[in-house]
Write a structure and sequence with these properties.
Layout lengths: L1 H12 L3 H13 L8 H11 L5 H14 L3 H6 L3 H16 L20 E5 L2 E11 L9 H4 L10 E7 L6 E7 L4 E7 H5 L4 E3 L9 E6 L10 E2 L4 H12 L4
Parallel strand pairs: 2-4
Antiparallel strand pairs: 1-2, 3-7, 4-5, 5-8, 6-7
Helix pairs in contact: 1-3
Length: 246
């Protein structure tokens, strides 16, 4: 959004003084209601003043979409449930279709404690998926407006909540920026023993906690990062690490 704002501001700055000042006054008074917001207003005025053509607009639009490949995930899956369950679990399953939803038949004691199972050498690997999105921590704008790009310098706080290390063997965490998606794979004990893991998220919920990713600590998790093509291999390695004595 920052780049789009800069590009439009350059075009506005090139307007004759009277047009430029009139537009800025109108923008300061403008009530934005999606999809009729300040960007739509600026572009329509630039059209009216013949400062841009349809081809110019299409070029701006294509560049914006290329820079914001995953912005639709902020818009379409607004609620935490829609994002964390509907999108994130489906996304991870599409990357690693070998992992499957557990069933009572296969796991009689299953009570929704984890999201997926993977059978590896007669062992069942219990996998929990957690997801979060990077947004400007200081903004009160709608989710899709405050969504951050990977190289943004603004602060963010991605809170992975309701973590129960005792209920799964492996955690797969997925984090979305407007232009990139990142993945981490942890053994359950990697999370439980991490210095950023906070126990006791909810009163009375023993064995449950949360962990915050932010600009200050995200690089400390680099060793757990995974590429999509390596996700299943990382899950198996995390499982082995979970039950190793080291």
């Amino acid at each position: 959004m920052e780049i789009l704002t800069e590009n439009l501001e350059e075009l506005v700055a090139a307007l004759p003084t009277s047009n430029r000042e009139k537009l800025r006054i109108k923008l300061s008074e403008l009530m934005s209601v999606y999809p009729f917001n300040k960007y739509e207003y600026i572009i329509s005025n630039l059209f009216g003043l013949k400062k841009i053509t349809l081809d110019d607009y299409l070029a701006i639009r294509e560049e914006y979409l290329a820079r914001n490949e995953y912005l639709h995930i902020y818009e379409k899956y607004g609620s935490p449930t829609a994002f964390g369950i509907t999108w994130a679990q489906s996304h991870i399953h599409a990357i690693a279709p070998e992992i499957q939803k557990p069933t009572k038949k296969e796991c009689p004691g299953f009570d929704n404690e984890y999201d997926f199972l993977y059978k590896h050498k007669k062992k069942h690997i219990r996998i929990e998926v957690k997801a979060s999105r990077a947004v400007d921590a200081k903004s009160d704008e709608p989710l899709f407006i405050k969504a951050l790009a990977w190289n943004s310098k603004k602060s963010f706080d991605m809170n992975f909540q309701q973590i129960k290390p005792g209920h799964s063997d492996v955690f797969v965490w997925v984090a979305v920026w407007r232009d990139v998606i990142k993945y981490w794979v942890f053994a359950s004990k990697d999370v439980a023993n991490n210095r950023y893991y906070s126990k006791g998220q909810h009163r009375g919920n023993e064995g449950e906690g949360q962990l915050h990713f932010n600009r200050e600590n995200i690089n400390s998790f680099r060793k757990y990062e995974a590429k999509p093509k390596d996700l299943l291999d990382k899950i198996i390695k995390a499982y082995k690490r979970q039950y190793s004595k080291s």
